[in-house]
């Protein structure tokens, strides 16, 4: 162990070390259990706990059949593709619209500015459930007739993600030096140019932070996908939820299925964690 | 805020230029901007409707997704480009006044369409029948208020709200403080392990925890961790999620959410604790304060703001808690919550009137939080 903390004169804290080790292990055990179980045969998993396999790795049977079963048999593969198709546009599109709005809120002065921004803060708290029945009517057969298609879900995630995105980006942009924008203006740049050449590139950290949060939120969403996607377009999370509903047959596929749904957000999360923490600690908090 | 300088800059420029230039409109540029906007919006609307109506024409899902990203991002950029062109072609003074609204419009329009309009429409529907075709007065409210399931859900929601945010915050503070005392490497590893569940969906987390709460008949080996421990201690195997004595099953479901949210609380609180000036802690230590006293009297008061932020954020999440209950028990054994009741009324029972009435109750419950968030924002801006 490095002795970094010794430098400022604080002694090592054995109590912290023991407690944190226990907590970290405690927090990992549930996921570990899932991972181990997903590689066990159906019979093994039904007759002994996953920890026995971990303690006797060589006498227990290991298999990847659950994964192939879940991927093809339970058709998680099509759900997986759908999830990607749903999540990427639903992450990217709101940022464009929100970034311009955030620019206006940060660098422009206009009547009712505070009113509009308070409106954004207020709708961050409003439960998205309010939107479901009206949006089912607008997007459904009584309205546009696009409910069930990807476009319906992109639209909804764009709308629902917008307040947080505007809020996050505005908070970040207000930390940028205002003089940069002022001088661009004096040099004859239009707002569009200033936004595109100066403010957008400087806001990349906040954009990355929001994109990570929004991607996790869209990928992990159950409600919107279940209500607004027809079954052949549905996401991997809805597929997993349907697997959870089945008893007996196919139970062994469940753990593998669950792990398949987790793996993509996990990779995104681990790679972009740094950005996300920075964004979160600068006020990007989902309401 | 530097409202004065930003308003002054264009005025200065105007004086240098031909004075009439500021007042003149540029009809050609205006027409081009307006025309461009109309064409882009028309094209995008058709493209996106085509995704909806004729998905098979595009060959594969990925083609649709790629086109959607290009169309969405490129289209948005083009809309703003033409919008900006149009607004700049207006007489200068008018243009300066209009351009902020032009930048806001698309974003606010989406928020208006997806969140503000539906809020009022939902309130409207809550007075209508099950397919929103005729008004029924207060009938929906009478129905849900006389339903014991509704009141049980309210009680459960309150219980969730009392327990989860408090536990998450307390846990977050403890972990943040303890990990701050570890070596840099140890802190990083421990925090990553606790933070990781944040990437997991509520459905995935439920699958993980259902494994822990699994039940096998007595005499058989217990495959669920909780029952294995319980039996190991000499107990009888239990169907944990069916036990509503002392709301045990609800509490076990809360554990899932606490497990998911703890990392989030830890990250925010940890960065707040790192922001506590070292000399305040040092001064207390020199004055002979114990570690516990330093924690309560020096650290906690200085991270109070973050504690409240985390509390409110988790509180709002808990208020809308749905997925975990839906996939584990679907509200059986007395575990129902408001958002799950809403979903079942809307989705399974097709009772739009009652479902929207339930949302209105939820909406009323969050109103104080809206007020709080606005106040919090104003205080923060004042401190900037």
Automatic annotation (TrEMBL), chain A:
Residue intervals passing through the bilayer: 21-39, 80-103, 115-136, 148-169, 195-219, 253-272
Subcellular location: Cell membrane
Domain ABC transmembrane type-1: 80-272
Gene Ontology CC terms, in alphabetical order: plasma membrane
Keyword field: Cell membrane, Membrane, Transmembrane, Transmembrane helix, Transport
Bilayer topology annotation: Multi-pass membrane protein
Record-level GO BP terms: transmembrane transport
Pfam families referenced in this protein's UniProt entry, alphabetically: BPD_transp_1 (PF00528)
Keyword Membrane: yes
Family named by the database record: Belongs to the binding-protein-dependent transport system permease family.
Name used for this protein in its record: Alpha-glucoside transport system permease protein
Species annotation: Humibacillus xanthopallidus
Automatic annotation (TrEMBL), chain B:
PANTHER family assigned: BLL4140 PROTEIN (PTHR43227), DIACETYLCHITOBIOSE UPTAKE SYSTEM PERMEASE PROTEIN DASB (PTHR43227:SF8)
GO CC field: plasma membrane
Protein name from the UniProt record: Alpha-glucoside transport system permease protein
Topology of this chain in the membrane: Multi-pass membrane protein
Protein location: Cell membrane
Swiss-Prot/TrEMBL GO biological process terms: transmembrane transport
Entry-linked SUPFAM superfamilies: MalF N-terminal region-like, MetI-like
Domain ABC transmembrane type-1: residue ranges: 154-371
Membership in a protein family: Belongs to the binding-protein-dependent transport system permease family.
InterPro entries in the record: MetI-like, MetI-like_sf, UgpAE/MalFG_permease
Primary location recorded for the protein, binned into one broad class: membrane
Organism field: Humibacillus xanthopallidus
Keyword annotations from UniProtKB, A to Z: Cell membrane, Membrane, Transmembrane, Transmembrane helix, Transport
Transmembrane regions: 31-51, 63-86, 98-117, 158-178, 194-215, 251-273, 294-318, 324-343, 355-374
């Amino acid at each position: 162990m490095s002795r970094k903390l010794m430098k400022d004169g604080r002694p090592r804290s054995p109590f912290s070390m023991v407690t944190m080790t226990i907590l970290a292990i405690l927090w990992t055990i549930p996921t570990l259990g899932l991972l181990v179980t997903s590689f066990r045969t159906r019979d093994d998993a039904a007759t002994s706990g996953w920890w026995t396999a971990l303690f006797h790795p060589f006498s227990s049977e290991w298999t990847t059949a659950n994964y192939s079963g879940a991927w093809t048999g339970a058709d998680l593969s099509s759900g997986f593709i759908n999830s990607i198709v749903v999540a990427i546009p639903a992450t990217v599109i709101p940022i464009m619209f929100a970034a311009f709005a955030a620019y206006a809120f940060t660098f422009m002065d206009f009547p009712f500015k505070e009113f509009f921004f308070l409106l954004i803060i207020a709708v961050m708290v409003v439960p998205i459930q309010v939107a479901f029945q009206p949006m089912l009517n607008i997007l459904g057969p009584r309205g546009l007739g696009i409910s069930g298609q990807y476009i319906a879900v992109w639209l909804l995630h764009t709308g629902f993600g917008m307040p947080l995105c505007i809020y996050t980006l505005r908070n970040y942009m207000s930390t940028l030096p205002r003089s940069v924008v002022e001088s661009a203006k004096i040099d004859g740049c239009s707002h569009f140019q200033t936004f595109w050449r100066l403010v957008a590139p400087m806001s990349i950290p906040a954009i990355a932070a929001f994109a990570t949060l929004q991607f996790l939120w869209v990928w992990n969403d159950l409600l919107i996908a279940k209500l607004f996607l027809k079954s052949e377009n549905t996401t991997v999370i809805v597929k997993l939820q349907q697997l959870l509903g089945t008893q007996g047959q196919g139970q062994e596929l469940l753990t593998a299925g669950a792990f398949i749904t987790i793996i993509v957000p996990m990779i995104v999360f681990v790679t972009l964690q740094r950005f996300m923490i920075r964004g979160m600690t600068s006020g990007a908090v989902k309401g | 805020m530097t409202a004065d300088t930003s308003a002054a800059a264009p005025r200065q420029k105007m004086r240098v230029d031909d004075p009439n230039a500021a007042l003149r409109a540029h009809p050609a540029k205006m027409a081009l901007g307006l025309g461009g906007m109309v064409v882009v919006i028309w094209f995008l609307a058709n493209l996106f409707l085509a995704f909806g109506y004729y998905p098979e024409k595009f060959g594969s899902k990925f083609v649709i997704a790629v086109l959607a990203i290009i169309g969405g991002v490129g289209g948005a950029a083009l809309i703003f480009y033409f919008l900006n062109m149009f607004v700049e072609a207006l007489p200068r003074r008018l243009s300066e006044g209009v351009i902020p609204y032009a930048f806001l419009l698309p974003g606010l329009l989406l928020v208006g369409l997806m969140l503000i309009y539906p809020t009022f429409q939902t309130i409207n529907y809550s007075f209508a029948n099950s397919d929103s075709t005729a008004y029924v007065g207060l009938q929906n409210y009478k129905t849900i208020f006389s339903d014991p399931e509704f009141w049980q859900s309210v009680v459960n929601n309150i219980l969730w709200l009392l327990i989860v945010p408090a536990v998450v915050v307390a846990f977050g503070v403890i972990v943040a403080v303890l990990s701050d005392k570890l070596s840099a490497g140890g802190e990083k590893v421990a925090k990553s392990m606790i933070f990781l569940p944040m990437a997991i969906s509520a459905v995935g987390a439920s699958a993980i925890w259902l494994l822990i709460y699994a039940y096998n008949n007595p005499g058989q080996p217990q495959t669920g961790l909780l029952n294995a421990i319980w039996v190991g201690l000499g107990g009888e195997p239990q169907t944990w999620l069916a036990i509503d004595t002392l709301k045990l099953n609800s509490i076990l479901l809360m554990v899932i959410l606490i497990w998911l949210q703890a990392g989030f609380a830890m990250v925010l609180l940890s960065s707040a604790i790192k922001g506590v000036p070292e000399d305040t802690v040092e001064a207390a230590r020199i004055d002979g304060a114990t570690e516990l006293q330093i924690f309560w009297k020096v650290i906690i008061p200085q991270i109070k703001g973050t504690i409240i932020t985390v509390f409110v954020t988790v509180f709002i999440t808990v208020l809308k808690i749905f997925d975990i209950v839906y996939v584990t028990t679907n509200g059986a054994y007395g575990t129902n919550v408001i958002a799950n009741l809403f979903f079942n009324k809307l989705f399974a029972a097709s009772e739009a009137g009652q479902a929207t009435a339930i949302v209105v109750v939820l909406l009323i419950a969050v109103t104080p939080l809206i007020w709080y968030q606005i106040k919090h924002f104003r205080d923060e801006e004042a401190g900037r």
